[in-house]
Amino acid sequence: MSATANVSDSDASDRLFVEMSHKLEALTASVNDLQKRLDASQQAINDRLATGLGKIDGRLDELRHRTDVLDADRAARTPVQTAAAPPKATPATPPSTAKDTGVDKPHALTKATSQEAPPPPRPHYTVQAGAPDIAILTDAQGRPTRVLPGSSLEGWGTVLSVVQTGSGWAVKTEHGTIR
Known about the structure:
Layout: H1 2-84, H2 108-114, E1 125-131, E2 134-139, E3 144-147, E4 152-153, E5 157-165, E6 168-173, E7 176-178
Antiparallel strand pairs: 1-2, 2-3, 4-5, 5-6, 6-7
Protein backbone atom coordinates (compact mmCIF):
# COMPACT_ATOMS: atom_id res chain seq x y z
CA MET A 1 0.00 0.00 0.00
CA SER A 2 2.79 2.40 0.62
CA ALA A 3 4.00 1.94 -2.97
CA THR A 4 0.54 2.87 -4.25
CA ALA A 5 0.43 5.89 -1.95
CA ASN A 6 3.83 7.03 -3.15
CA VAL A 7 2.74 6.70 -6.79
CA SER A 8 -0.50 8.62 -6.23
CA ASP A 9 1.35 11.33 -4.25
CA SER A 10 3.88 11.56 -7.06
CA ASP A 11 1.09 11.77 -9.69
CA ALA A 12 -0.69 14.49 -7.70
CA SER A 13 2.54 16.40 -7.30
CA ASP A 14 3.27 16.11 -11.04
CA ARG A 15 -0.26 17.26 -11.94
CA LEU A 16 0.10 20.23 -9.55
CA PHE A 17 3.46 21.09 -11.07
CA VAL A 18 2.07 20.94 -14.64
CA GLU A 19 -0.95 23.06 -13.65
CA MET A 20 1.28 25.66 -11.99
CA SER A 21 3.52 25.68 -15.05
CA HIS A 22 0.51 26.38 -17.32
CA LYS A 23 -0.70 29.20 -15.05
CA LEU A 24 2.81 30.70 -14.96
CA GLU A 25 2.95 30.63 -18.78
CA ALA A 26 -0.48 32.32 -18.93
CA LEU A 27 0.66 35.02 -16.46
CA THR A 28 3.88 35.56 -18.43
CA ALA A 29 1.89 36.01 -21.65
CA SER A 30 -0.48 38.42 -19.90
CA VAL A 31 2.43 40.48 -18.51
CA ASN A 32 4.08 40.58 -21.97
CA ASP A 33 0.80 41.76 -23.52
CA LEU A 34 0.43 44.48 -20.88
CA GLN A 35 4.05 45.57 -21.44
CA LYS A 36 3.46 45.87 -25.20
CA ARG A 37 0.31 47.95 -24.63
CA LEU A 38 2.14 50.16 -22.12
CA ASP A 39 5.01 50.69 -24.58
CA ALA A 40 2.54 51.59 -27.35
CA SER A 41 0.72 54.04 -25.05
CA GLN A 42 3.99 55.67 -23.97
CA GLN A 43 5.08 56.00 -27.60
CA ALA A 44 1.75 57.61 -28.52
CA ILE A 45 2.03 60.07 -25.61
CA ASN A 46 5.65 60.89 -26.53
CA ASP A 47 4.62 61.46 -30.15
CA ARG A 48 1.79 63.78 -29.11
CA LEU A 49 4.07 65.65 -26.73
CA ALA A 50 6.80 66.01 -29.33
CA THR A 51 4.28 67.22 -31.90
CA GLY A 52 2.81 69.74 -29.47
CA LEU A 53 6.21 71.00 -28.36
CA GLY A 54 7.33 71.17 -31.98
CA LYS A 55 4.35 73.35 -32.82
CA ILE A 56 5.03 75.61 -29.84
CA ASP A 57 8.75 75.83 -30.68
CA GLY A 58 7.87 76.60 -34.29
CA ARG A 59 5.52 79.38 -33.26
CA LEU A 60 8.07 80.82 -30.83
CA ASP A 61 10.77 80.70 -33.51
CA GLU A 62 8.41 82.42 -35.94
CA LEU A 63 7.68 85.16 -33.39
CA ARG A 64 11.39 85.59 -32.67
CA HIS A 65 12.10 85.77 -36.39
CA ARG A 66 9.39 88.40 -36.86
CA THR A 67 10.82 90.39 -33.95
CA ASP A 68 14.32 90.14 -35.42
CA VAL A 69 13.03 91.25 -38.83
CA LEU A 70 11.17 94.19 -37.29
CA ASP A 71 14.25 95.19 -35.27
CA ALA A 72 16.46 94.95 -38.35
CA ASP A 73 13.92 96.93 -40.41
CA ARG A 74 13.72 99.59 -37.70
CA ALA A 75 17.51 99.76 -37.50
CA ALA A 76 17.75 100.02 -41.29
CA ARG A 77 15.18 102.84 -41.43
CA THR A 78 16.76 104.94 -38.71
CA PRO A 79 19.97 105.83 -40.64
CA VAL A 80 17.98 106.43 -43.84
CA GLN A 81 15.77 109.01 -42.12
CA THR A 82 18.75 110.88 -40.67
CA ALA A 83 20.62 110.68 -43.98
CA ALA A 84 17.64 112.12 -45.91
CA ALA A 85 17.90 115.42 -44.06
CA PRO A 86 21.55 115.89 -43.13
CA PRO A 87 22.27 118.74 -40.72
CA LYS A 88 23.60 121.87 -42.31
CA ALA A 89 27.29 122.30 -41.81
CA THR A 90 28.44 125.64 -40.49
CA PRO A 91 31.70 127.05 -41.72
CA ALA A 92 34.71 126.40 -39.53
CA THR A 93 35.24 130.15 -39.09
CA PRO A 94 31.93 131.94 -38.62
CA PRO A 95 31.64 135.32 -40.36
CA SER A 96 32.42 138.20 -38.11
CA THR A 97 29.52 140.43 -37.15
CA ALA A 98 29.22 143.64 -35.23
CA LYS A 99 27.60 141.79 -32.33
CA ASP A 100 30.28 139.09 -31.99
CA THR A 101 30.18 137.99 -28.36
CA GLY A 102 33.35 135.92 -28.51
CA VAL A 103 31.53 132.76 -27.36
CA ASP A 104 32.16 129.75 -29.58
CA LYS A 105 29.05 128.16 -30.99
CA PRO A 106 28.85 124.37 -31.27
CA HIS A 107 29.26 123.12 -34.78
CA ALA A 108 26.65 120.87 -36.34
CA LEU A 109 29.47 119.26 -38.31
CA THR A 110 30.92 117.66 -35.17
CA LYS A 111 27.50 116.24 -34.34
CA ALA A 112 27.18 114.67 -37.79
CA THR A 113 30.61 113.05 -37.61
CA SER A 114 29.98 111.68 -34.11
CA GLN A 115 27.00 109.63 -35.34
CA GLU A 116 28.07 106.06 -35.95
CA ALA A 117 26.52 103.47 -38.18
CA PRO A 118 24.23 101.10 -36.28
CA PRO A 119 25.92 97.88 -35.22
CA PRO A 120 25.28 94.88 -37.44
CA PRO A 121 22.43 92.63 -36.28
CA ARG A 122 23.46 90.02 -33.76
CA PRO A 123 23.58 86.37 -34.84
CA HIS A 124 20.37 84.50 -34.09
CA TYR A 125 20.73 81.77 -31.47
CA THR A 126 18.12 79.49 -29.89
CA VAL A 127 18.50 77.67 -26.59
CA GLN A 128 18.07 73.96 -27.31
CA ALA A 129 18.91 72.59 -23.86
CA GLY A 130 20.03 73.93 -20.54
CA ALA A 131 21.06 73.13 -17.03
CA PRO A 132 22.34 75.35 -14.24
CA ASP A 133 25.39 77.19 -15.63
CA ILE A 134 25.45 75.42 -19.02
CA ALA A 135 23.39 75.67 -22.20
CA ILE A 136 23.43 74.32 -25.74
CA LEU A 137 22.57 76.95 -28.35
CA THR A 138 22.01 76.50 -32.06
CA ASP A 139 22.70 79.21 -34.60
CA ALA A 140 20.61 80.00 -37.70
CA GLN A 141 22.34 77.18 -39.60
CA GLY A 142 21.55 74.65 -36.84
CA ARG A 143 25.13 74.33 -35.55
CA PRO A 144 25.26 73.62 -31.80
CA THR A 145 27.36 75.72 -29.42
CA ARG A 146 27.93 74.97 -25.73
CA VAL A 147 28.13 78.05 -23.47
CA LEU A 148 28.99 78.58 -19.83
CA PRO A 149 29.07 81.75 -17.73
CA GLY A 150 32.22 83.63 -18.72
CA SER A 151 32.40 82.23 -22.26
CA SER A 152 32.29 84.65 -25.19
CA LEU A 153 29.52 84.47 -27.78
CA GLU A 154 29.96 86.23 -31.11
CA GLY A 155 27.75 89.32 -31.34
CA TRP A 156 26.41 88.87 -27.80
CA GLY A 157 29.53 89.35 -25.68
CA THR A 158 30.28 87.48 -22.48
CA VAL A 159 27.76 84.99 -21.12
CA LEU A 160 26.70 86.21 -17.67
CA SER A 161 24.41 83.36 -16.59
CA VAL A 162 22.20 80.47 -17.66
CA VAL A 163 18.86 80.51 -15.85
CA GLN A 164 15.64 78.53 -16.01
CA THR A 165 12.58 80.49 -17.13
CA GLY A 166 9.37 78.54 -16.73
CA SER A 167 9.81 75.32 -18.68
CA GLY A 168 12.77 76.61 -20.71
CA TRP A 169 16.20 78.15 -20.28
CA ALA A 170 17.60 81.60 -20.99
CA VAL A 171 21.19 82.69 -21.54
CA LYS A 172 21.89 86.19 -20.23
CA THR A 173 24.75 88.00 -21.97
CA GLU A 174 26.30 91.46 -21.94
CA HIS A 175 24.13 92.52 -24.87
CA GLY A 176 20.83 90.79 -24.15
CA THR A 177 19.05 87.57 -23.37
CA ILE A 178 18.86 84.52 -25.64
CA ARG A 179 15.85 82.25 -25.20
